[in-house]
Amino acid sequence: MAEGSNSFLDDPCLSPSSKKQPGGWRAVKYILANETFEKLASMSLIANMTVYLKTKYNMEGVLLVNVINIWSGTSSFMSIGGALISDMFLGRYLMLLYGSISSLLGMMILTLTAIVPKLRPPTCIGQINCIDPNLWQLSILYAGLTLMAIGAGGIRPCNIAFGADQFNTTTKEGRSQLESFFNWWYFSFTFALVIALTAVVYIQTNISWVIGFAIPTSCLLVSIVIFVIGHHAYIIMKPQGSVFVDLVKVIAAATRKHRLDCSRCSFYDPDFHPRTKQLRCLEKAAVIANQNELDEDGKPKNGWRLCSIQQVENLKLLLGMMPVCLAGIGCFMTMDQQTTIGILQAIQSNNVLPSGFKIPPGWMGLSPMIALSIWISTYEILWVLQTKRLTGKAKRLTMTQRINIGLISAMACSIVASFIEKKRRTAALKHGSFKSPMSILMLLPQFALSGLVEAFAAVAIMEYLTTQLPESMRTVAGAIFFISLSMASYLNSMLVNIVHKTTKKGGKTSWLGGHNLNNGKLENFYYLAASIEALNFLYFNLYARRFIATSCTINKESKEDQHINEDQI
Q1: Alpha-carbon gap, residue 24 to 235, rounded angstroms
Q2: What is the CATH T-level fold of the domain 20-239, as seen in this structure?
Q3: 101-130, pLDDT tens digit by residue?
Q4: Domain 320-551 annotated CATH 1.20.1250.20
Q5: 167: exposed, middle or buried (Cβ count in 10 Å: 0-12, 13-18, 19+)
């Protein structure tokens, strides 16, 4: 499709085999079906991977946390590469197709590890004298996880965007249809997530890992088939370049010209974009050092040597948002800790109800979702609607307030987890058992608080990135969010390794306890995590929060100037 166009007629990028007008709901029905099966497949594996590695690969705590965090972090980081390749070379359709095939291959390998016992170490009975997995067994496992991470990198940045491509947003009807698509997309995502976290996780834990892995693998295969069948109905847009490259160009051009004296320089500023006072060193990227840098039409001959003021200001705006994103990384670390260490606690807790029903440890992942859903519905229905009814104007919590509540929830999550863990471990040692007699339900508060961290801090930071960046940089907002998630996973892994190596010195037992949490002092790790969150709270309020107001002001001025320029034209 021609750059900047959303026309549905005479487009060389559209499938010529279709006699009907492509796009719209005719295409989206395939995309939503594909998305539902794909999410059902991926979340069915992600949700219970900690339990699988612990029970079937005999992984001790530190190795398990490292594997899960590095896999999760790499999956998020790969999204940046997927977005770049999609925007510059393949386009969204092919990126989604290749990403899905990569994920399918990875799932097939993981399913194979469940089917063939020799691909795993012998089952550890009673967690005594557990045999660790061999290098070749781990290599096969890592190959499967790597293919899934590559696949996630291709799917995540393109799935919503490809659906949005199917609507003509230049019309009121198209914009209305797009809004409806987002609602159905989130509905399908939630539906798949609930099925994955309940039925599939139950089958994996209590019936058979082979069946439990075969189900998501089959779902992904069905997802790919549906996606390919719908090819004739899609609007497939050509790659149009990436805004990421523009940001890199600014850094490259500013570095080349860092010795220039800009006191009397002229700038390349075709859009008459306002210049901010921050990071003036980057403006050298827009300095016209020599008229030979421009062609006959007054445009740069080499975009890596000369950029526009608008490109420079976009990079400035993005860099100005980094302090807030750093505060978000601390919150995301708390969320990651519950999906790994929290699940390890659940594995060593009493999961049998008085009725005899066994609660799968992976079901603990439902608690954050439920807490998030309860808060959002309470906030939107009771608070926002009631304040609007009473005052005539909807009163919402500010972005700063929500992030602060998220930071406090993160601290509370770690503190509550430390108290619960001490109680769980004490009961286990008293009874001399691997599993504590303490009910798994006692872990619900810490998982619920993890959900509140996401409801307040994560949602607010995503909103901050999306609303404060120009519309042309919306893909960058998603990329920065994924990078923040990735960094949180990597930093969490680093923290676990540092704590493990430090606390086991002198022949002592690591706080993380190796194969058995009862041998360690996990509550001390949670105290440390709470201390880090307290420092993060101080960092945000003493330094980072000012950048929320700054970026809002800059973005507002930028939009006002843009409207003035449009009026002048």
Answers
A1: 9
A2: Growth Hormone; Chain: A; (1.20.1250)
A3: 999 999 999 999 999 999 999 887 766 677
A4: yes
A5: buried
